[in-house]
Amino acid sequence: MTATDRSIELINSAAQAAADKLAHDIIAYDVSDVLSITDAFLLASAPNDRQVKSIVDEIEERLNKELGAKPVRREGDREARWVLLDYVDIVVHVQHSEERVFYALERLWKDCPELDLPADAKATRGKGAEHARLQDAEDAAELGGGLR
């Protein structure tokens, strides 16, 4: 069994919305062969809580406006460290970068086929690591400057 056309449509729209809000490392998996409750997972991350919320809001608004889809459940909104949007056909996970590394959902679903995504979403791959390197360099520069 593979993800339905509707699921692919939802995933692509959600991935584009996440990319438009500068999400990092957007990836989607077809989990229809291993889960009976949903067809696909979309994973995205952001370096801070405010951006996580912004990405989630954009995904929710875009799927509603473009495809008439509303989530049946939204979890994790208060802390904005890991927000889950359940659309039944797909489940969207938007995580703070630290949670993304810690929980490593990619390892859990690595045996599932990866879904093709819009070019803008694919271009986000590696952005989380790039952001972390830049942040580390800024932190080191601040620390070095403060010790003089």
Can you tell me the residue ranges where pLDDT is under 50 for at least 5 consecutive residues? Answer: none
Rg, please? 16 Å
Element order, helices and strands?
HEEHEEEHHHH
How far apart lie the N and C ends?
A: 62 Å
Shape: globular
Mean pLDDT: 91
Structure classification: alpha+beta
Oligomer: single chain
Strand content: 15-25%
SS summary, helix count: 6
Helix content: 40-55%
Major sheet: order of its strands? 1-2-5-4-3
Main β sheet profile: 5 strands, mixed
- Total beta-strand segments: 5
What does this structure look like?
Strand 3 and strand 4 (82-86) form a beta hairpin. The protein has helices spanning 5-20, 49-67, 97-103, 105-109, 119-122, 127-146; strands at residues 24-30, 40-46, 73-75, 82-86, 90-96. It contains 6 helices and 5 strands; from the N terminus they run αββαβββαααα. It starts with a helix and ends with a helix. The chain is an alpha+beta fold and 148 residues long. Strands 1-2-5-4-3 form a 5-stranded mixed β-sheet.
